[in-house]
Amino acid sequence: MDVLQQLRNEASPDRGARMAPLAKLPVFWALEGRPVIVAGGSDAAAWKAELLAACGANVHVYADRLSETFEKLIERGAEHPQGRFIHHLNVWDASIFEGAAIAIADCDDEDEAQAFFDAARAAGVPVNVIDKPAFCQFQFGSIVNRSPVVVSISTDGAAPILAQAIRRRIETLLPASLKTWAELAQSLREKINDRLAPGPQRRAFWERFVDRAFGSEPGSGSEAAILADAGRVASSAQKGRVTLVGAGPGDAELLTLKAVRALQAADVILFDDLVSDEVLELARREAKRMLVGKRGGRVSCRQEDINDMLVKFAKAGKRVVRLKSGDPMVFGRAGEEIACLEREGIPVDVVPGITSASAMASRLGVSLTHRDHAQGVHFVTGHSRKGVLPDNLDWKSLADPRTTTIYYMAGRTAGEIVSKLTDAGMTHDMPVVIVSAVTRPNERRWAGRLSDMAAAMAEIGIDEPVLIGIGHVFRKVDFADCTQWSDQAAASA
Question: Catalytic positions, please?
């Protein structure tokens, strides 16, 4: 277990901090019944005043003239039952800030902005001068409103249009019914807390609630169904479980929604060395993360040790995610781990991921089963348990020109693969591609002939995970483009 102990890194130097630097601290501020100041009568000031009143604030507007938009807003009144507008016909002065929660102004020039900023700060009131970042202690983000669910997006002023585009995407992901579900959760929280013990029980219930909120529309019987579900959770013994999750080849955008939800629900995450930081960033912050890397030719955790950890944490009632690069069911040792967990009576399920071969095909724009060139595809491991080429491969079948073959983890055995294939009858000019670190920023590619494959592999190296594709489907891959791209990637790495 010595190796395992050395690799228990929750935030190791080579993987960066658990929390990357933030441009601003996102804070949600309660303003119900609180006095706030808006100086100026422009449309821009009206928008900020409307936003503050929607939060239940008492908005004191200081302006001798109001835009038509602002006049109509004040005439209509606030939507929030505690929100209201109080219009003062005079412009602002230093006496207005006492007791205010925040102060906002739309100033015509820098001198007025400086004066407002200084007066608010002297009174200890957080201040924002619209469209003048130098005079802002806080900023407003783009908002997705499913209150009490509120999502705010900020780019720290760098690209407001980008923030708006992000908001539009989030709007499409969050159903309108989420507002009703959230209100229902708010009204039932005390009853739920009375029925369920803090910790795993409550979290298990709320995770089930989330499944319900994203999977159905609320109805007249929803409250009763939710309370009944709380009773079932309370009466059941807390059991741990394991989920094998495919992290894909590295690009976090290739994760499935189900994989992200599993990461967000985990108590413990045992992750492979090849899992990218971008994928880990999507995990639940409170989850304990443990590196259990297995890399060919390097010091690694034993599979037996990983199995023992899965069992130990699950029996302790934890929700464990075994996060594997690619797809757990393709050269991911999932079978061994599933068998071990089943022997111990531990529930286990699998969330598939995009296997590296599929990612490589999409990156190259190649169909692995193009009907003009291939009637089948093989996924083959490039090394056995002993770290060498398996001795039971059917080389005659693998040399069949009517199939496409993808070799995983074959960097060290590339030369031997060439010899075996040519001995089995494959021609020296069979198209080959090699892709290293597929979908990652340091991805490298090579395309050429079987006869040149070993030399190319020696040039690309084996520091990163490598895929080798062999077959006529790769004829369309441009040799010059791949080698040039590879050289550029190497220079920037």
Answer: 272, 294
